[in-house]
Amino acid sequence: MRTTETASHSENSTLRKVPTLSLASYTTGSSAEKSKFIDELFTGLKEYGFIILKDHNVKAADLHKAYEILEKFYSLPTAVKESYISPNAGFQRGYTPFGKEHAKDSPVMDLKEFWHVGRVLAADSELRNVYPENIWPTKELPEFQTHFVKLFNALEEAGNVMLEALTMPLEVDKDFFARMTKDGNSILRLLHYPPIPDGVDPRCVRAAAHEDINFITILPAATASGLQLKDRDGTWLDVDSEPDTLIVDVGDMLARLTNDVLPSTTHRVINPQDGTNGHRYSMPFFMHPHPQAMLSCLPSCKGTGAKYADITGQDFLMQRLREIGLLK
Q1: CA angle at residue 114 from 110 to 45, to 5 degrees?
Q2: Which of 56, 176, 244, 291 could bond to 60 as cystine, CB 3.0-4.6 Å?
Q3: Do the beta carbons of residue 285 and residue 219 sit within 8 Å?
């Protein structure tokens, strides 16, 4: 995905652009390069709620293959896709049909369908009674399971590195986030935005303005443009990313932990603006803590007082799933 950013921040400011950082400068760089990455990551997330990541561990060939598989799956008949709807509440695994989810407080549904891949647990894991089982379209696409489990693991690895980098400016132990996200309820969402259908409610967009629920979201560059974030002055800013980069944004859980020092930024996916009306595929990885992790304001961020009450990761997730229409 490559879009052009033209929105000005104010009369006295230069054009705003989400910063692009090299993850390799943190993982294999010098001490100075590592320190610079930490500073730029923290500043970028604080200023925009978003950064773009290059030189990461997720292979470009794996991303290309993933989009090929998604195109095949979403070309299947509706009845076949609907046979993979999860029997569990909340659509946390398997297929979610077109028009089922809406943004918090939105009166209309988003123009998308998607598939959820969750963590693959060990046979003796206590969380098997908490997390739903994954669902796989093995008959139609034998490679689906292997490929998306691999992608899930690679995106989680990148997320763990970035969260570790945030521990220094947030003044917590280096393993603080690693302990919270171990066996976390993370989700890889495999999205399809079909061409906008005739006669659709004009208020509907591909993804209405919203904030993410989780710690951080890691989004491989999509197959078409449309992603926008709301800048600090209320301007909608196109998110410009090169192919095979990862777009990273702050979710509500990290915003709660940091007392909005790292804010959860409103973003959306708008309908095609260039006269085309094609398909768009996207694969956000929502990085969550484990269910009993307590979302409590960090001491370094408390300032004059915590804005939010303590809540577990699981309780907060269930609350938000109800708000977006995926859980009754």
Answers
A1: 75
A2: 244
A3: yes
- 218 by DSSP, 3-state: which? strand
Give the distance from CA 102 to its chain's centroid.
16
CB atoms within 10 A of CB 89: 12
User: pLDDT digits over 164-205, tens only?
Assistant: 999 999 999 999 999 999 999 999 999 999 999 888 888 999
Return phi, psi of residue 65, to 5°. Answer: -65, -40
Q: Residue 51 CB: number of other CB atoms within 10 A?
A: 23
pLDDT in tens, 221-277: 999 989 999 988 899 999 988 999 999 999 999 999 999 999 999 999 999 887 788
Tokens of 274: 């260039």
Selection from 51, 313, 17 nearest residue 177 by Cα: 313
Dihedral sign from CA coordinates of 293, 295, 296, 297: positive
Could you give the CA distance from residue 241 to residue 237 in angstroms, rounded to a whole number? Answer: 12
Q: Which domains can be identified in the chain, with CATH numbers?
A: 57-323 (2.60.120.330)
* Polymer length of the chain: 328
Give the whole-angstrom CA distance, residue 280 versus residue 285: 17
